Amino acid sequence: MICSPRFLPLLSALALAVGGALLGLTGEVAAQATAAKGSDKAGKPSPSSGGQGGIIALVNDEPVTAYAVEQRARFLALNANIGDQVKENFQRLVKSESTNTRFRALQQQVLSENRGKSREQILAIFQERQKQFGMELQKQAMESARSAVLPKLRKEAKEELIEERLKIQAAKKLGIEVTDAEIDTIVKALAERNKMTKEQFGQHMKGMGVDVSTLVERFRAQKAWRDLIARRFGAQVSVSQRDIDRIVSSSDLETGEDSSELQLQKITLSLSGALDQAALIKRYSEAENLRRKFRGCGTMAELAKGTPEARFTDMKFVKPAAIPEPTRTMLLGAKDGDILPPATTTAGVEIYALCGRRAAAGNEAARTKALQELQSKELEVLARRHMRNIRQEADIEYR
User: Fold this and answer.
1) Where are the domains of the chain?
2) Which residues pair with 65 in a beta bridge?
3) For the whole model, what pTM was predicted?
4) What pLDDT is recorded for position 301?
5) Alpha helices of the chain — where are they, by DSSP H?
6) Is the Cβ–Cβ distance between 30 and 110 less than 8 Å?
7) Spatial distance between the Cα atoms of 305 and 312, rounded to a whole number of angstroms
8) Domain 241-359 CATH (choose: 3.10.50.40, 3.30.70.20, 3.20.20.370, 3.30.750.24)
């Protein structure tokens, strides 16, 4: 763990408060330093506290232990939003009298162990020990914050483990089993993303109070469940091209990119002669009348024929960037078959109809991503429904 820069000012304040006598302190160093270290160690929670702790639930006669729940809760705590609490804990530790006493003992220890060295050498050694001291305080503040959220996470952990037992059991009934080699590949990939070997990653997790086996258990259940859902419900998932186009178009609206093309038709009501308010009101009234009569893109050409000085344009497929704002944004947010409110342009009063969408040439990646997203959402709905059914049929005994 690296001492976070945002905690250094607090630690420096502590150093200034008690560091004035750094080179003048003498005597009884070892006993105080040993006592301080012992106190620090005693205050740290043991990663394996609680032991097996007995069985707290049976899932179709398969046990869930208190130790497994504790480990899972600790794992969930690693991702909990505790940043503000960590900072508050650290500030409290820095200001406490016990920390002040430990810091003085650290000063005495440095002096006692480095007699005969120059002032500069002793200061350099003390700065390094001060950094280590800050790291210990930060770790203590982190562990305290995580411990505070553990009680409410234990219930979540217990239910998660119960569902994982059910997932593994259901998968086995279909002949689905996740091998150790498959899980090993997942753990190695996770370790590599964190620039560690598998062994280093395991030690890193252990240092945070979580045995890597709790991750292995979680990964195994997740993969078994994904395989089960894909096998049972994959054929039931149906995604329409229109849904894919809608997702791609929505992405364009958020990112400002043109990964889709819009099939558009337009009616332009020209503004000839004097341009005054009366002329505009008349044209807007005619445009609104056309919108009310609109019954789909197949009716646009006929609508234009029945209106004086109205021109119909079948624009085919165009990229959204070719359409001026705010019409572009309105079209990207519209549904296929929608007609927009009239807008005034240099050409006159225009109304656009959105007839369809398609992926822009060379941008099939966006459609593939949209397809996977939609399939995943549908499968997730089916998965939740299937889990409800499994739980209703299961024999779950809480202890």
Assistant:
1) 5-233, 241-359
2) 55
3) 0.52
4) 92
5) 8-18, 29-42, 66-78, 83-95, 97-113, 119-173, 180-193, 198-207, 212-233, 241-255, 277-293, 300-305, 327-333, 364-393
6) no
7) 8
8) 3.10.50.40
